[in-house]
Amino acid sequence: MDDIANHKALICVAETGSLGGASEQLGKSKVMISRAIKTLEDELGFRLLDRNAKGSKLTAKGSAYVETCRPVIQQVDSALNAMALNKGQFICDTDDQQIPLKLSSPNTFGSIVLSEVIADFQKAHSHYRLELVTDEQFQDIFDHKLDISIRAHLSSDSIHDNLISRPLIKLPFFLCCTPEYLTRYLSKTVTSANSMIAERDVISDNIVRIKNVSIDDWFAQTPFVAWSYLGQHESVMVDSESQRKVTPANVTFISNNSISCRNYLMASEGFAFLPLHVIRQALNEGKLIIVTLEPIKFEVDLRITYMNAQGRQSATNRFVEFLMQHSAITSLRQEIQSLYIKLKI
């Protein structure tokens, strides 16, 4: 990290109160943040932070130093942004120049969400040529010559020092089935281990709570449509925090494509455990409903990773900021929060 980046790291630690908070906000590993602070301390000859198990707190000298360097860094940022904006304007005015951007994302997220964002981005920036590679497997930015990678399960501590990793969205999974199948299931008066009759509690048009049936009983009694990419044909993780897994007793269909699982589910018997963005349209159209049995929450943390480019108006950063603020992302976040409120989780 250069001198400006080191000072930005210090200011961010001061504002968030921890190396971890600065790591998440800046998209850099805690090792990099710690190294930046140590470099400044070595150059200045005094400690900037007091570190303990509860977090990091500025020393008296550190606090005074932050107050003096904060406005300077803000001025530098403004100057860099103005210069990048000026450069970007000249690029926009050059009709015969195209700027290539290569992105990678999971299959369904790329097909359902990202393609819409890319189309809108190119309407506003016609001089960009974007290539989207969709694959469920992780693709290394350097090996595959990617500008941007959107992947799950990558913390800011697991990436290369020259990369930035920012949280994009947490995608929840839900138990789902057709309304017709749920009616047939309940009409059979299926009982749990305690011999209690299953009961329906309608939460909203597309959410139904089933009482007196546990998740284990449900997976043991009903046909299951398995997304094999997550190994659901063998076991299904239903809660992120507790790492709880259940085993489906009657797998009737297996596919490595979640859209295929959804389409099969709508035309057949049984239930599935799929991400919201895959079943979202079917929920809104009344073709599928969410079934909740216990207060569980399983989420996939989707992150956007890219090279540490200079300037907010650089090609990569311009697309990243566009993506972060696009309605396809913001509306999905809002819908997720609304569902969590209804489910009381």
Automatic annotation (TrEMBL):
SUPFAM superfamilies (alphabetical): Periplasmic binding protein-like II (SSF53850), Winged helix' DNA-binding domain (SSF46785)
Entry annotated with the keyword ATP-binding: no
Domain of life: Bacteria
UniProt keyword list: DNA-binding, Transcription, Transcription regulation
Residue ranges annotated for the HTH lysR-type domain, each copy included: 8-59
A Pfam family it matches: LysR_substrate
Claim: Nucleus is one of the keywords in the record: no
Family stated for the protein in its record: Belongs to the LysR transcriptional regulatory family.
PANTHER family: HTH-TYPE TRANSCRIPTIONAL ACTIVATOR TTDR-RELATED, HTH-TYPE TRANSCRIPTIONAL REGULATOR
Stated name of the protein: LysR family transcriptional regulator
Organism: Vibrio agarivorans
Biological classification of the source: Bacteria, Pseudomonadati, Pseudomonadota, Gammaproteobacteria, Vibrionales
